[in-house]
Write a structure and sequence with these properties.
The structure is a single chain. The strands form 6 sheets. Strands 1, 5, 6, 7, 8, 9, 13, 14 and 17 form a 9-stranded mixed beta sheet that branches. A two-stranded antiparallel sheet has the order 2-11. A hairpin with a 6-residue loop joins β15 and β16. The protein starts with 10 loop residues before the first helix and ends in a 15-residue tail after the last strand. The protein is built from 12 helices and 19 strands. The chain is α/β, with parallel strands linked by helices and 460 residues long. α1 runs antiparallel to α7 and α7 packs antiparallel against α8.
């Protein structure tokens, strides 16, 4: 019989020993060994928390297309660009869109044939044609659209949502990122930064093992349960001598959550449970474990299981929408996402989930309506005006909000700054962006910094 109180190893050694047996998931071990301060209910850091006011959305699916999707080739039609193609302008030669625009749906919103299947869903969407960011470099703009800051490391929007609302399912993370490749800014895109580490995003990579070490490798499984029981006994005895240290209870809870993930997470990735019709809807080949269609279907399954914030990143820092050389690259990339995103919207709607699921589509910036030389086929970065859209979760349906000028160079009506974008997302989740704060380094921080306003015209 083991004397747990005098086993010759301290708690830290026990944690490291069990990590070698794959009991702990990446990130959770760091959380357990860290000496952080959780200002609110550390023992229940991920327990559901009440919203500031009634929410319209329970969860967010955040679709991020890395590299800078051209607004004037997708969701912001500019007839003058077509009519004046090749004409010398103040910043270069005007370049016509490479795709034709046409009205879709009962609302008549114009979308280009770059995204023909997404276009068929416009009656459920609010298209924003007046987005503005603060930086035209990938790294900074990627940070901006995710954290609200283009200069300093800050918590991701998913981390803020997790911190503000907690987890709906205690056996799964509240913030999951489906990312086959690292985006610009790398892991800072889903980092919790100064927020407690339990609120950082868990990265899922398409493939045979989406979350490394989540499937128990100890045989038989009873051995793993025995080791967990041993660790819990060590923790409880340790806690009895330190009753004034609330962080210990949070650490014990982390082990229980890790074990719960091993039981529940694998089922979320088992797409064999889905029908042939569902696979067809997303454009997913049965048995495939790669591609944006896989990400979209897994996102729906995670949403069903209570994951609060799910981000899907299409491509990474080296293979993306950054079409400097030839805009035709946009066409190749759109084939990978168009059907899958449309399928996700349709699937959520037919399951009755779209009403309380906020779907957000964005990129870090747009692309210039002009080129340096008339023969250039690509476009440069453009943060002064670009497009995003939202659907479901309390958003008005079938509308267009905001306007850029006749060439798509500047916003001229109803500008939506990135801070406004974030404030609106939080509002739909029942969170007041001015009240959602965290004390760090002597001041209160928030996602929207010192600005941002809710775009009420987007609310249903």
């Amino acid at each position: 019989m083991i004397d747990h109180a005098n086993c010759g190893c301290n708690r830290r050694q026990a944690i490291r020993s069990l990590a070698g047996g794959s009991l702990l998931l990446p990130g959770i071990l760091a959380e357990l060994l860290a000496a952080e301060t959780e200002p609110r209910s550390p023992a229940d850091a991920l327990s559901p928390r009440p919203a500031h006011f009634p929410a319209r959305a329970k969860r967010v699916i955040f679709l991020y297309l890395s590299g800078g999707v051209s607004h004037v080739d997708s969701f912001d039609p500019k007839p003058k660009l077509l009519a004046e193609h090749g004409k010398k302008g103040p910043s270069g030669f005007l370049k016509a869109p490479d795709w034709e625009f046409q009205p879709y749906g009962k609302c008549g919103t114009e979308v280009s044939d770059l995204f023909p299947r997404i276009a068929e869903c416009v009656d459920d969407m609010a298209v924003i044609r007046s987005m503005r960011g603060d930086h035209a470099n990938h790294f900074e703009a990627t940070l901006g659209i995710h954290t609200g800051s283009v200069t300093f490391a800050r918590p991701s929007i998913g981390s803020w949502v997790s911190y503000g609302l907690g987890a709906l399912n205690q056996n799964l993370p509240s913030f999951v990122v489906l990312a086959p490749f690292l985006p610009y800014a790398g892991g800072q895109v889903w980092a919790s930064d100064f927020l407690p580490a339990c609120h950082q995003g868990i990265r899922v990579m398409p493939g045979d093992e989406p979350i490394p070490n989540v499937v128990p490798r100890l045989q038989p499984p009873e051995l793993q349960e025995m080791e967990l029981g041993l660790l819990q006994t060590l923790n409880r005895r340790h806690q009895q001598r330190r009753m004034e240290d609330p962080l210990l209870a949070a650490r014990i809870k982390s082990f229980e959550t890790a074990f719960g993930m091993q039981m529940e997470a694998p089922g979320a990735f088992n797409l064999e449970e889905e029908s042939d019709q569902t696979h067809e809807l997303y454009g997913l080949v049965r048995g495939a474990r790669l591609g944006f269609a896989w990400q979209c279907l897994v996102a729906r399954r995670l949403a069903e299981r209570g994951v609060r914030f799910i981000e899907l990143i299409d491509t990474g820092a080296n293979r993306n929408w950054d079409s400097h050389a030839d805009m035709k690259d946009h066409g190749r990339l759109s084939h990978n996402v168009d059907r899958a995103i449309a399928g996700l919207l349709q699937d959520l709607k037919q399951r009755g989930m779209l009403d309380d699921t906020l779907v957000v589509w964005t990129t870090e910036f747009g692309r210039t309506p002009f080129v340096e030389k008339p023969e250039n086929k690509g476009r440069e970065h453009h943060a002064a005006a670009f497009s995003s859209w939202m659907a479901g979760g309390g958003v008005k349906r079938g509308i267009v909000y905001g306007r850029s000028d006749d060439y798509g160079i500047q916003v001229v009506e109803n500008e939506v700054h990135v801070h406004d974008f974030h404030a609106t997302i939080l509002h739909l989740l029942g969170l007041d962006h001015e009240r959602l704060t965290y004390r760090h380094a002597g001041r209160d921080f928030r996602l929207t910094d010192v600005s941002g306003k809710v775009v009420k015209s987007l609310l249903a």
